[in-house]
Amino acid sequence: MDTDSVRLFVLAADKLNISAAGRELGMAPAVASARLAKLEKELGSDLLRRSTRKVALSLEGADFLPYAREILAQEDAALAALGLGRPQASGTLRFAASSTFAQLYIAPLLPEFLQRHPGIQLDLRLSDSLFDLIEGSFDLALRNAALEDSSLKCRKLADDQRILCASPAYLAQSGTPLRPEDLAHHQLIGFRDASAKDLIGPEGRAGSFDPRQTGARLVVDDGLSLKISTLAGGGIAIHSLWSVHRELAAGSLVRVLPDHEIDERPALWLVYPKSNVLTAKVRVFIDFLMEKIGAAPPWAAP
After folding, report:
1. CA distance 8 to 195
2. Does domain 90-160+266-297 correspond to CATH entry 3.10.180.10?
C-alpha cells in the first residue's frame, strides 16, 4: 500500500477537500484525485463520497481512517528511529475535551502551542458530552474518569476534587446544611443523570447527595451552566474544584458541609487510542499540557 496515498486520504478526510489536501502534499488536483481513486481501487472500497459541491467520508472511509492514521504513525516512528523523516511534529490533531475546562485552562494556551509548533493544526471538539475516540477518529481527549475501554491508554494530567457549594444568597434564604440529612430539605442541582453521590464524614459514610430524592427541578448537562445556576442561587451543587476555586476565594460561592467529602477520587486524564507508537503531534501536545497545567494546577495552589 502506498503510504503517500494513505497520507493524502487522511488529509482529505480532515479537510473534506481533495484539492486542498493535494496542494499540501505538492500535488495538482487531478493528480490527487487519481491517487485517491487508485487507493480506493486497491482497497476495493469507496473511501470518500464526492459530489460537485462537497466531499464526505463514506462508511468504509470512516472505518478505515483510524487504521490509516496508525499506518502513518508507524511509518513516521520507523523513520524517526533511523534519524530520518519529518523533523517537526505536523498534521491535524483532533482533540476532545470538556467545554468548561477547555475554556478556562486550555483555550488561553493554544496560541503559544501553535507558535511553538507551526506544522500542527488543531481540530477541537469541546463538549461536556463524551465522544467515542475510536469512532470519532480523535487523537487525544481529556476525561475526568478512569478508563473502562481496553482499547485506550491514558496519562494523568492532574488530580481533581469535587465539593458541595452554594451561593451566599441561597444559604441566607434557605439555611446552611449542618448534616448530610439536611440536604433532603434543600434544592439540589443535578448534573447529567442526577445520580446519587455518597458523602464521607470524619467517621465514615454519613449520607448522600441525591437530587432525585429531593425532586430536583434543575438538571443540566453543561458544567458552565451548572456553575452559573449555582452562582445565581439555584441551589446546592457538586462542582470540581478547578471549576469554582476562584469563586470560593472571592466569596461568591461557599463550600457546603466542608467536613464531608464526595466518595470518589476523580482526576483529569489525557486519553488516546492504544497503539505501539505515540505520534509526534500527540506527544508534543501532551507534553505541553503537562508543562502548563499538570506541573502546577492553578486550583491546587494554597
Report:
1. 46
2. no
